[in-house]
Model the fold of this input.
Amino acid sequence: MSLHVFANIVTPFGTASNNRGENEGNITTLQKLIWQGESHSSVSAEAIRFSLRRLLADLDQNKTNRRWDEDSRINTWQEQDFKSWSKEDAETFIDDDLLGFMSPDAAREEGGRRAIVRRGVLEITRAVSLTPWPGDMVFNAASPGASPSAQKKGNNPAPYSAEIHATRYQYGIALTPERLRE
Done:
């Protein structure tokens, strides 16, 4: 019989705002969905997984395959091709073991064979706000030259608005520990 672990997580109360770089005109928008007839802000499972990978790397970067480089804004890899997963006893990385991966490049390199894929052992759902989004927005002005769009304004500040939401979020996780390699 397998052990299956399920949990529902409720975050501390805090203010959410968007850092995805998506906007409508000069308004930076939150992701939202309609839940029980009202608009609730939401955080994608991918964003939660990305954050968890960064936390794991901060704890021990030698045990994680990827590490986010803030300067170049890309992942740096220890093993980008995931070849160690083809051997039963090879040492692998905790972030790949727990959160999974997919390498479509392997299929191209090996003449059309299947991609190298490991489904994440830790399943994560989308986070949904516990309270409806009330429509809160803030007005800001980016300093001249602070971003590519601010540079277009020359020496003038670049005004923009951002949607924000002071709330708690809930999301679920599921884990079958015996599926972990280590």
